[in-house]
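Reply to dn_fold:

You asked what the input looked like. This is it:
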Amino acid sequence: MITSLPMYDRAETFAANDRLWALIRNHPALKPYQTPQTLTRGGDLWDQWKNPQMFLSQTCGLPFRSRLHHKVSLIGTPVYDLPGLRAGYYYSIFVARRSDPRKGLADFAGATYAYNESVSQSGWGGPYAHATARDVAFGTTLGTGAHQNSAQAVAEGRADITAIDALTWEFIKRWDSSASTLKEIDATDETPALPYISAVGLTIDGDPDDLRTAIRAALADLSPADRSLLGLKDLTFVTPKEYLSVPNPPAPPA
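and this is what came back:
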């Protein structure tokens, strides 16, 4: 079996995510399982998410509702330490260069927009819905492959604006030099946060409750320093219906 926690895994959080996984896999509820000792890092995420031996991973809301919801088990949704949100929800922050005189989102109509992935809720789906509802249409788009890359593209002037999920934005402000040249423009409405998933039928009797129990206990036992570092508070359950109620965006224009 394989396990990955790829969504907020970067050099500065590797050790904390490793400790989180160790707490999960060593929980008594998971004794019947031959869980992997270490997290899988690198490789194609779609291959991991569709792998029938995927014991645990984390995906984004848009991949879950558009391609995965009928192929995986929904385990639960983390509760992040972000202000003013319902448990299990998150939002994105629009950022632009500090030197750019434009101040509001409407000022960026026709601007070059950088997005991490076309199937990212935080980088494309949510920002597209937010901008469209306000009659703002971006011009050229630039796919970058990662939120950090999008922030760098804006900082370097290859794009004018991007949207980054609020927790990743906190990481960027904490650790990336590009943040000092960027400013916040707006925030999207909240949508369900990034769910934990497992391959269908991989858990005993197809019931993922043991895995939920282990994750919730691990989050409670995680050190305050690691919880703060990862921005994690708890585990909740956002229903598939809530994920599927969010509309899918069109693909970014070429």
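The two ends are 38 Å apart (CA to CA).
Hope that clears it up.
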